[in-house]
Amino acid sequence: MTGVLRALLLACLAFAFGAHAAPKAVATTEYPDLRDSYDRALQNGLERSLERLGLAEAVRARRLAVSVVDISDLKRPRVAAVNGDHMLYAASLPKIAILLGAFVEIERGRMKLDAATRETLTQMIRVSSNDAATAMLRRVGKQNLEGILMSDRFRLYDPAYNGGLWVGKEYGDAPAYHRDPLHNLSHGATALQVARFYYMLETGQLIRPDLARQMKEILGNPGIHHKFVKGLEDTGSRIFRKSGTWEQWHADSAIVERDGRRYIIVGLAEDRNGGQWLSELVKPVDAMLIPTRLAAADNTLGGTRRTATDAAAALSPVTRLAQPATSEKTLPALNTAPGLKLKKSEMRLLMACARDTRSGPAAVVLCR
């Protein structure tokens, strides 16, 4: 779609929705567009993880959409996605759009972030209160929220990329007041647009810094223990997230932080087992993006952090173990190496890499 056609379509939609004037942009050119930041190694690792979990068919059938963004270096994000622009019903996940709308109104001076407002927003996000979401949606304004999502500042719903975040129905028994114009969804999302929401939050492009800190605080300390939170329960990670569940639709989205590393993960599933899919998927993704003690030791030389390419090329014992000819029987011997006493989970990870006969010397990097 040409830039002119896209602009005309957005203008027509904004007029039809009665959108208010777009808020002033705060984005800078300091950070790249996520769509220009795909990483082949991360993409291969994500696809391999989906195959191992038996989810490749769900991806092909477009019943599963996933996006992953390594944001340990905010200026050099690494992106991987499957069905990233496929829009699915997302249940309560789009409550993050209402959260954004509230903070835009606060930034504009039309709403105060007093104790009552903060409590309503916190209940909406942490425990996914439908009553709180509906109350806040009414305060923000339904047409106003649509205008915010489609504005040039955010473009979190963009017809050029098959839609994105959408709220066209109160949360509860009321009928939809305005389904999205592309897919007729009342509450929808695409994995990449949700990832953009979190990336913009982290890079200061979503809202001014003092408000961004408070928004992220509300997204922290999840009150519902399932999906990504369940999959990461033993990792000690800090998780800032919003999930959604309705019948066979399951969604989750999060910023995950641990050991100085950060990443974004978004999953949208249409299957009665979708919640379990997401709980299992986050484990290998986390292992790829946040090194274990073993990987961290292998990836550091003389106190200087090395790149993934350097680590893959190094002739260390750990890297050599990733060669296809490696026998699993040799792996336990690593525990006799100085400073490399491994947990059982780390041993299982190495064994999985060694079993993957398609992997070359980079397997340890991809299988973290």
Q: Which structural class is indicated by helix and strand composition? A: alpha+beta
Order of helices and strands: HHHEEEHHHHEEEEHHHEEEHHEEHHHH
Rough outline: globular
The total domain count is: 2
- What fold name stands as the CATH topology of the largest domain? Beta-lactamase
Could you tell me the radius of gyration in angstroms?
Answer: 21 Å
Low-confidence stretches: 1-8, 14-27, 293-368
β-strand percent reads: 15-25%
First-last Cα distance:
38 Å
Q: If classified by CATH, what would the architecture of the largest domain be?
A: 3-Layer(aba) Sandwich
Largest beta sheet, briefly? Answer: 5 strands, antiparallel
The number of distinct helices, counting runs of at least 4 residues, comes to: 16
Descriptive overview:
With 368 residues, the chain is α+β, with helices and mostly antiparallel strands. It folds into 2 domains: 3-289, DD-peptidase/beta-lactamase superfamily (Beta-lactamase, 3-Layer(aba) Sandwich); 293-366, no CATH class. It is 42% helix and 15% strand. The protein has helices at residues 3-16, 40-52, 56-60, 95-108, 115-126, 130-140, 142-150, 191-202, 209-219, 227-231, 274-289, 293-298, 308-313, 317-320, 344-355, 363-366, and strands spanning 64-70, 78-82, 88-89, 157-158, 163-164, 166-167, 187-189, 238-246, 249-258, 261-270, 300-301, 304-305. The strands form 4 sheets. A 5-stranded antiparallel sheet has the order 2-1-10-9-8, with helices on both faces. The longest helix is centred in the C-terminal third of the chain and has 16 residues, at 274-289. The protein starts with a helix and ends with a helix. Mean pLDDT is 81; it is low at 1-8, 14-27 and 293-368.
